[in-house]
Amino acid sequence: MNLKKPINNSHSFYRRVSLILFLLFFINKSFSADFDIKETVVLSALIDETSGLASHGNFFYTINDSGNSNSIHKLSRDGEILNSIRIRNSENTDWESLAQDEEFLYIADTGNNFNLRNTFIIYRVPWSELNELEAEAELIMFSYGDYIPGSMRSHNFDAEAIAIRGEEIWLFSKNRGDGNTKLYRFPKIPGVYETNPSQTLSVDSLVTGADIDPNTGNLLLTSTRLNSSMRENIIWLVPTNNEGAEWSERQSITISPEDQWEAILWDSFSNKVILTHENNVQGYAGLGRFSAGELLQ
Questions:
Q1: Assign residue 14 a region: left if phi > 0, alpha if psi is -120 to 50, beta otherwise?
Q2: 100-101-104 Cα angle (round to 5)
Q3: How far apart are CA 62 and CA 279, in angstroms?
Q4: Topology of 42-295 in CATH?
Q5: DSSP-derived pairing of the beta strands 138-144 and 191-195
Q6: DSSP 46
Q7: Percent of the chain having pLDDT more than 70?
Q8: Residue boundaries of the structural domains of the chain
Q9: What is the torsional sign of CA 175, 181, 187, 189?
Q10: What is the mean pLDDT of residues 178-193?
Q11: Do 245 and 219 meet the contact criterion of CB atoms below 8 Å apart?
């Protein structure tokens, strides 16, 4: 059908209107979310590019990604910035994720949008040092054993999601090639490592955040994909064991509101799932939360 041809009868006009209405209905049905995050907080403009989340005690911690300071921002439970802690021996090349255990906070400098690097750093900082306005980090350095240079727009060597499981760091790639994510595992102690993928997960989207509940071993992933002009946001719930993610047992939901959701956290303090999004669709950076029980229904 030549769309430039003028409409010369009412039958053709109504047929086209019907087609447009059908397509609009189909698109709306396709993008209706399974779950609406209603409990949200507007964050300070100082953390417009929030890209990671962690918790310790009664506080949340977040970071901005590349182009911002090498500081950790400590938040109240209501999302208010209480102070900012500079990590002295660090550089924010592209900070993309946070993880935690009982003793340490882990800061992942693992962003690699254009595949221009294959040496990455995870800064490990004792919680005890984060009571001051400056702190010193230990360095966990790694490279990808399966690294392939080039392919700036289609590659597997960007990562925005780390989590701690036992004595390991689990890193999930943001695969700009086939849309799957690769799981890389290496020790959470300072050192230099070369890591190879242990598993590939068929998410068909770009993974932006991860956390593992230390009590149950359940993994949460956030991911995003573009369908037409809309961004579809997905939360994955996956059991894990010592061998890896039990992908055959996965569950997933799509969430709203639409935005660039970047980080996810199991919050044992409140038994809620906490997420943050950058200043994008909504016009502000935000923190959302909902009961973990709602996800597990």
A1: alpha
A2: 75
A3: 14
A4: Tachylectin-2; Chain A (2.115.10)
A5: parallel
A6: G
A7: 89
A8: 42-295
A9: positive
A10: 97
A11: yes
Give residue 191's identity as a one-letter amino acid code.
G
Output the six-digit token pair for 57. Answer: 């005690």
Write down the pTM of the prediction: 0.89
Q: Are 60 and 286 in contact (CB under 8 A)?
A: no
Cα→Cα distances 34→100, 192, 234, 245, 255, Å: 29, 42, 9, 23, 6
DSSP for 74-126, please give it: EE-TTS-EEEEEEETT---SSEEEEEE-SSEEEEEE---TT-----EEEEEEE
Helices (H), 8-54: 10-30
Cα(287)–Cα(105) distance, rounded to whole angstroms?
Answer: 20
DSSP 267-292: ETTTTEEEEEE-SSSSSS-EEEEEEH
pLDDT value at residue 297: 62
